[in-house]
Amino acid sequence: MNSSKIFLKDWLLLHQHNQIELADDWYVGFSNELLQLVIASDLYDGFPIEQQKMVALLLTTYLEDCVAQEGGWCRFKETQMELYKRPLPFYTITNDYIEDEVNIEDIQFLLWCFNSGPVEQGVGVVDDPFGDNLLQLANAVYELMIEKFNQAPIGLGDSFDWVVEPNQFQNHLEEKQETSESEVITRFLELTNGNKIHYVYTYKELELLFSKGLNFKDSKESLVELTDFSDFVVLAYQKRLIIGVGIAKYFSDTDNVHYSKTKAMDEAYVLFCEPRRCPFPILEYAMNHNLLADASLPIPNGNQLLLENWDFIARWYLGDFYGVSY
């Protein structure tokens, strides 16, 4: 069996139907044409053949969804419009962008998706959505799709949610309750002159804040897991306090004397890309109050791309931890 060829069974894995449809054979043939472009590209040079095949299959599914105007791609774009009033992050959408046809920006974005995402260890892989190799392959794929678009049959439009998991881009931030302040929040705001966010640099200072300042009787027991850490951010959130660990140095705030612009520029992107690195309410508060203005993705123009697309990036990388205060 030729391992560098895509077969019908590979194609059906991305769809809800099990019986072969007339359109399926055409799209399998097209996916093999795309596969040759992927294999020959600098972007996927040296990648395992199974990964190259998956890229070709997903790009073909994109074409099928565009032709049918149904499927996972269409559902993803609808969600993007609901959340951000635009179909895609990163890219400038001009009048040349046609909703019911293939678009070069879509293909560029999908290649970014295929190459960027969480990993089990570390903060995740962040590809450049404007990288030369990415743009070169996107152009080649786009030209082939435009050439074949009018020949492409209308499929069932039953592709799975192949861009992202169905719940990943739902607005599932913990429900914000309009409640009166708790006693601990009232006391905290008195100590911080009304500031909802506060910076504490050592564990000893943190323990004193809770034991002496806030009169927590069991503060040592409550904070014991933080004994070996420092550089804390404390946020008044609803009726409780949330603590972020090891992140104060990234927050550009006049009250934060330990802020490091260099570290913020080099490292703060991990708050958006590494699950559990920063409680989401702290991240959201920081972005709403311009406290992470120097954060930058580790790619060209990374600061602007992050600041303009931070919510999308957080949803993409944090997954189930998006919106969670833990």
Please characterize this protein's 3D structure:
By secondary structure, the chain is mostly helical. The protein has 2 domains: 8-151, no CATH class; 183-321, no CATH class. Helix content is 45%, strand content 5%. It is built from 13 helices and 3 strands. It has helices spanning 8-12, 22-40, 49-68, 72-84, 104-115, 132-148, 183-191, 203-213, 219-222, 261-267, 270-273, 280-288, 302-318; strands at 197-200, 232-237, 240-244. A 3-stranded antiparallel β-sheet has the order 1-2-3. The longest helix is centred in the N-terminal third of the chain and has 20 residues, at 49-68.
Features:
single chain, 3 strands, 2 domains, 326 residues
What's the story with the biggest beta sheet? 3 strands, antiparallel
Oligomer: single chain
| Structural domain tally | 2
The proportion of strand residues reads under 5%
Instruction: Please give the radius of gyration in angstroms.
Output: 24 Å
Which residues sit in consecutive blocks of at least 5 with pLDDT less than 50? 173-179
Total beta strand runs: 3
List the helices and strands and how they pair.
Elements lengths: L7 H5 L9 H19 L8 H20 L3 H13 L19 H12 L16 H17 L34 H9 L5 E4 L2 H11 L5 H4 L9 E6 L2 E5 L16 H7 L2 H4 L6 H9 L13 H17 L8
Antiparallel strand pairs: 1-2, 2-3
Characterize this entry briefly.
With 326 residues, the chain is mainly alpha-helical. Helix content is 45%, strand content 5%.
